[in-house]
Amino acid sequence: MGYDIERFVGYVNEGLLCSICRDVLEDPLQAPCEHAFCTACIHGWLVHHSNCPEDRQVIDVSLLRPLYRYMKNDLNRLQLHCRNREYGCEMVCSLESIDRHERECEYSQIPCSNAGCTVQIERRNLDGHLAVCEYRSRECPNGCGYTMLSAEDTQHNCVAELRTELELLRSEMICRVEEAKHEMESRLDSQRRHMVQKESILQNEIEELKSQMSRMMSDVRSLMAAERQHRQELEQAELEKREL
């Protein structure tokens, strides 16, 4: 739907009106036949029709294009009243800037920010409403730290709230201790497995060294036996030499 033509100041060119809703174009699109429509209006029309509502020429969504630049400029320069005029806003601004103004308008009706409150209030009066809203929250004046709604004042019990808070803290502490315990056990188990693997590797290395030492001792004994044999042969040769 377009902008209500009654909101505009002065004359509005016929070419800037939607051919379907007859209000001033909002987010406009143009057909090849140059008739212009609000985006929402023409999309809704094409769900049930396949032609232009003005001249009945065949059109398709894929054929729709943005408004000509000069028409877009003319549209943006139109002056209109804020939609909150009925609440007291007297602002008149261009169509190009109306959305920005209305997002910040002090006369806009906005919901109360307190959970549970259904009141719609003008933005300029929001702070005053929040100060007296029955759903506003505040800390207990007795110092227990509990945040309560005004409606709960008569039912609030500091001792009960502190006891509940203590139980929650105790439960949280128990959970954290259990988590730390499990994490420590997991680390110890991991270290234990690592030590067992290391011990196995060292044991294998020791066995290998023992095997190497055994082979070396065997080689040494073989060398010593060979040396004795060689010495005996030399002594025998010496004796034979003397006899000769």
UniProtKB/TrEMBL annotation:
GO biological process: regulation of canonical NF-kappaB signal transduction
Organism: Urocynchramus pylzowi
GO MF term set: ligase activity; zinc ion binding
Name the UniProt record assigns to this protein: RNF41 ligase
Coiled-coil segments on the chain, per record: 192-243
Start and end residues of each TRAF-type domain: 101-144
Keyword vocabulary terms for this entry: Coiled coil, Ligase, Metal-binding, Zinc, Zinc-finger
PANTHER family in UniProt: RECEPTOR-ASSOCIATED FACTOR, PUTATIVE-RELATED, TNF RECEPTOR ASSOCIATED FACTOR
